[in-house]
Design goal:
469 residues; alpha/beta; Lyase, Ornithine Decarboxylase, Chain A, domain 1; TIM Barrel; nine-stranded mixed β-sheet; eight-stranded parallel beta barrel; 17 helices; 32% helix; binds pyridoxal-5'-phosphate
Length: 469
């Protein structure tokens, strides 16, 4: 071998250097995976690190501006296509008081499903006649109150119908009721455990019974056909069926209804597990839902309209599509690990105790600082001493040190209500105000005192120290 040639080809020695990998490319859907690095460190102009220092980690952060904008665009989409629309805010989706209050300020009624939710809506100043009362269990004292206060009670089963008949008769009041219906739209799994079945005539029987009862007035029909419904044709089928039944009641029983309530179920911009395409591509906009629903309903009732009868009020109970992307969760990395199979894992201070929806969504996980380092498939664990505590099975992240933070979103729907009070304190929820830089705590973080306030120690157990003696 010619050593002279080899020497000539050899490049001069350079000291090794470490260069951070800046990932700013496009993801597989052509979307830029990272934003402006400065934006990553801020949420609506507020420094994320400051928020965590001030309010602790983990932290739920709510955007007032997004919440109001979502409600307004839902209402605009429907009201611009149908003459008489109301939105009942589905409390179970997120009943943090400030969130409910903001939506009521925007004009939403309350949709409640339990005594607690009913009482909460009233305590927030919602008048009884702006409450839609759903759910399979309404105890008799809350039914009495709801009847007295003129709430719209949506009857779920015959036993409840009987109970309401009795209460209304005792009170000497005519109760405004609707019946919840279940039926097959052909697009979603029928939720036949709720309400009266349409196909087997149960719903017609319920309507006839209400008609016979002097203390009940049937004023509406309700149905909720499922959740995270991506195919707008499901709603078209739903409103056609509701309209047809409404006409049948008018013609055969001379019952004039005021409203049709189509429940909730509009999908939020979240990534449902098992769906390959990103939410931006599969989730219909409010305009797309409205464009499918409103003209279909108007057409289904056209013969009635031609006879001069007004269109019924259209009631929406949208939950997740209103609040999901109005909330994010900030969490800190507690530790990093390498699993025996070579995968990288991070332990976070927020787990499925706070992110119940982690069981069915692949939440978006974002860095809160510029993206440096080579990304690797990473599994995100929460802090619970439980094997099921997995926030994301697999997400591509660069190396992160303990103490660094991540932003998980959208998390506004069903987490502040279905979270588990299990071994950890639940964290604070804050609100980023829309009209100023202010940030308000809208739910305090739990502490030992708040968590123990319902425990009672019988006499003899008061001095715990003596138990160990
Ligand atoms: C009767 C009723 N209305 C409204 C909703 C809200 O649904 P979503 O959050 O999917 O809009 C639900 C949720 O299960 C419901 O059961």
């Amino acid at each position: 071998m010619n050593t002279r040639i080899l020497k000539a080809q050899r490049r001069p020695w350079e000291a090794p250097t470490l260069r951070p990998v800046q990932l700013t490319g496009l993801n597989k859907f052509g979307k830029r995976s990272q934003h402006n690095p400065e934006d990553q460190e801020r949420l609506e102009g507020r420094c994320i690190e400051h928020l965590l220092e001030q309010f602790g980690s983990p932290l739920f952060v709510t955007s007032e501006q997004r919440l109001r904008a979502n409600q307004q665009s839902l209402m605009h989409a429907f009201s611009s296509r149908y003459p008489n629309v109301i939105h009942g805010w589905s409390y179970k989706t997120n009943y943090t008081s400030a969130i409910c209050a903001i939506l009521h300020q925007e004009g939403s009624w309350a949709e409640v499903v339990s005594a607690f939710e009913y009482e909460k809506a009233r305590s927030l100043g919602v008048p009884g006649n702006r409450i839609l009362f759903n759910g399979p269990h309404k105890n008799s004292s809350i039914l009495q109150r709801a009847i007295r206060e003129g709430a719209r009670i949506h009857i779920d089963h015959f036993d409840e119908l009987e109970q309401i008949e009795e209460i209304a008769a005792q009170l000497g009041i005519i109760a405004r009721v609707a019946i919840r219906l279940n039926f097959d739209t052909g697009y979603t799994e029928p939720w036949s455990r709720f309400g009266f079945n349409l196909e087997n005539q149960e719903a017609l029987d319920a309507a006839m019974r209400i008609k016979r009862c002097p203390h009940l007035h049937l004023c509406g029909l309700h149905s909720h056909i499922g959740t995270f419904i991506l195919d707008v044709r499901a709603y078209q089928a739903q409103v056609r069926i509701l309209a047809q039944f409404m006409i049948e009641l008018e013609q055969s029983l001379n019952i004039e209804l005021d409203y049709l309530d189509i429940g909730g179920g509009f999908a939020s911009r979240n990534a449902l597990q098992g769906i390959y395409l990103p939410p931006e591509q599969v989730v219909p906009s409010f305009d797309q839902y409205a464009e499918a629903i409103c003209p279909t309903l108007i057409e289904a009732l056209a013969t009635r309209s031609a006879q001069g009868k007004p269109l019924p009020q259209l009631v929406l109970e949208s939950g997740r599509a209103i609040v999901d992307d109005a909330q994010s969760l900030l969490t800190r990395v507690v530790a990093g690990k390498n699993l025996p199979d070579g995968r990288r894992a991070l332990i976070l201070d927020a787990g499925v105790n706070l992110l119940f929806t982690g069981f069915w969504y692949n939440h978006k996980v974002q860095l809160t600082r510029p993206n440096m380092g080579y990304p690797e498939e990473t599994i995100l664990y929460g802090p619970l001493c439980m094997n099921i505590d997995v926030v994301r099975q697999s997400v591509s992240l660069p190396p992160l040190k303990s103490g660094e933070s991540l932003l998980i979103s959208p998390v506004g729907a069903y987490n502040n209500t279905q979270w588990l009070q299990f071994i950890e304190y639940r964290p604070a929820v804050v609100l980023l105000h829309a009209d100023s830089d202010a940030v308000s705590v809208i739910r305090n973080a739990e502490n030992l005192q708040s968590m123990s306030q319902h425990d009672l120690l019988p006499e003899g157990l008061l001095d715990a120290g003596s138990l160990c003696a």
